[in-house]
Here is the input.
Amino acid sequence: MTRLALSRLHFPVTTLGPGRRVGVWFQGCSIRCPGCVSLDTWSAKEPDTDCAAVLAAIQPFANQADGLTVSGGEPFDQVDALHALLVGWRGAHSGSVLVYSGYPLERLQPLLARFDGLIDALVTDPLQLQVPQTLPLRGSDNQRLTLLTASGRAAFAHLDVPQPNAAPALDVMFDDETGTVFFAGVPRRGDMKRLASLLLRAGHQAATTEDKSASACR
Ligand code: SF4
Here is the structure.
């Protein structure tokens, strides 16, 4: 039984890969890029969710999905759980698999044989705010999109060309139980600050859920 430290699940996610996708966010990131907008996923926690339970939870909508996107957090910080999740997905679903990592591609290369056929498209490398942002799916253009399968090349190749004037898009998710709002997608530079400012002007409060240890790691 392989356990996963899970941040959240969502369907449909329309801004992290082509079509309507299942999104799985891993909890915990050891990379901690300055400027990351996913501070809430930085803190590591005990892997407390069985991968089989994650697969069961996504089963009801997975068959309507065009694929699976795994982000975080840092999925490769939980390499066994990532592997178990993708083996389970591949065994039951045909949709493409996109995985995000902040590690350089060269560092992941030795691991990729184990993931042969499990990952169609892989975004790698840390966010670097000093680098322009013109490429889809990425926060900075140093981040590489590697297409690892024929399906990945068919589904993702059009997303490896600059689109500097593309309309920004984020998925907005509401959690009725906690009253929390989540955004999925890759915001353009300054989008989250602009959103906070608009909300403030409209009389609402906006706060980032921060990992308290973040400042020590920058
Ligand atoms: S690897 Fe991803 S989640 Fe981790 S700090 Fe960098 S951008 Fe944020």
Observations:
- The two ends are 35 Å apart (CA to CA).
- Strands lie at 3-4, 6-13, 21-26, 49-50, 67-71, 96-100, 121-124, 144-147, 171-175, 180-184.
- The pocket of iron/sulfur cluster is lined by residues 29, 31-33, 36, 38, 41, 72-74, 102, 126-127 (CB under 6 Å).
- The helical segments are 51-62, 79-92, 105-112, 150-156, 191-201, 214-217.
